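Suppose you are handed a protein chain with no further information: no name, no annotation, nothing but its sequence. What can you learn? This example shows the usual starting point.
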Amino acid sequence: MRILFVHPNYRSGGAEIAGTWPPAWVAYLSGPLRRAGFDDITFIDTMTENVPDDELARRMEELQPDFVGVTAITPSIYAAERVLEIAALHVPKAVRVLGGVHATFMYQQVLAEAPHIDVIVRGEGENIAVELCTAIAEGRWPQDRASIRGLAFRDGDKVIATEAAETIKDMATIKPDWDVLDWKQYTYIPLGTRVAIPNLARGCPFTCSFCSQWKFWRDYRVRDPKDVVDEIQELHEKHGVGFFILADEEPSINRKKFIEFCQELIDRGLPDKVKWGINTRVTDIYRDRELLPFYRKAGLVHVSLGTEAAAQMKLDRFNKETKVEENKEAIRLLREADIFVEAQFIVGLDNETPETLEDTFQMAWDWQPDLANWAMYTPWPYTPLFETLKDKVEVHDFSKYNFVTPIMKPAAMERGELLDGVMKNYRRFYMRKALFHYPWRGTGFRRRYLLGCLWAFLRAGFKRTFYDLGKAGYWGPQTKKQLDWHFDESRQGTIAAATDWETNADKAAQAQARRDAVREQMKARGQERSESRKRDRIDVD
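A reasonable first move is to predict its three-dimensional structure. Written in structure tokens, the prediction is:
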């Protein structure tokens, strides 16, 4: 059986300014498939190679696969659908499969708008992919599809979703096939080295209202740190990787495992050869203040902090469970440990104003992170915050849900004014850093890294790829009223997100609600008994 995986050709003008990122999903799927006996696996990264449709069609016809698999986040969903449309036209006998977070929750809409998709894999895909490919190879497809958990497909006029598959409990079984990637294509620009995105844990115990990852993975699980370091050692020795970013939402949640991971890196002498970065929460930095030098010794050089918003009101709205003053302190602690810190701000909600945008700049400059990033609020249609704001969402073109396009229009600002305010923040922050900080603060690795980050920004700015400025037609404040966002206005409304998906966080919330209800009932009964005793009491006066 011949398997073809394709990464869709979608560029947002955001994260890719720092480099070309290896699609780790294909390695994590190919690993278990190869162990199950599926050896004929090909991968085409149409994004990194910038493969046009006609070239992709030619390569598909040449390969003649039996299975074509694609994944998609929300902004890349239409590009992924197009890949499978090309497969339907040029290799029609292949089973066409889509996975990823967007299709997991929006399968009703995806199957309605893309009839050329045969089946959607919902949730964590490794075990489902093996079962699906086995059914195809044994000639049991499509008659056995209803018996495979974790799928969605059309059956006549109906859309069927089978019961959700179990999440992977034995994390030792996760063994990616990193050989499937062409490593010379993937470079982290600030350090000029190959980059990887391995996975230490899956899921998140927190329930930030704007995030989908805790919903997608359903429960929080950590791999054995030695297994992950085995991968990193292989990535360095076999594929020349010199920098990696852990894919986890927050790899430092499990403090014990994270310390073991760092110690394992040190014991193998890897920090001298491989540097790395993470995304994490302010509270973890606060908690581990005494351990930050140890983390730096393990090779951790870059921490991206979800500070999210300047106003505490916004932090509470996002359910972040952090305080503004903790953000400033966490950044100071990281700088003292010689770890580069990037502060992430979310802007562009309905209550954004020129004053709140200015507040985020002033706060960023006061806190003095090494890097700052202003991301446009993107209302994923399957998150709790979307349910609160959906009546204010005017744009349903998912290709623009990319953190750089103003999907939400603030009540007090036009979209062009919002983008111009964000660009003003970027210009001021990085101009000051370039003139007064980066060339003069520190020596050796610190200076080289910061100048490499500055070069990545300048490179993207010169190419007009940063924040999709070239596509929107932004050339400065004078153009803010003339921008063209290229919204596809034919895409109206969204079919409601799936409600059959239950996470551990949902179960915990339901259990808490039941406990609260029982307490309220007991309290009410106690009050009733008290009132009854008062009524029965004889007044002897």
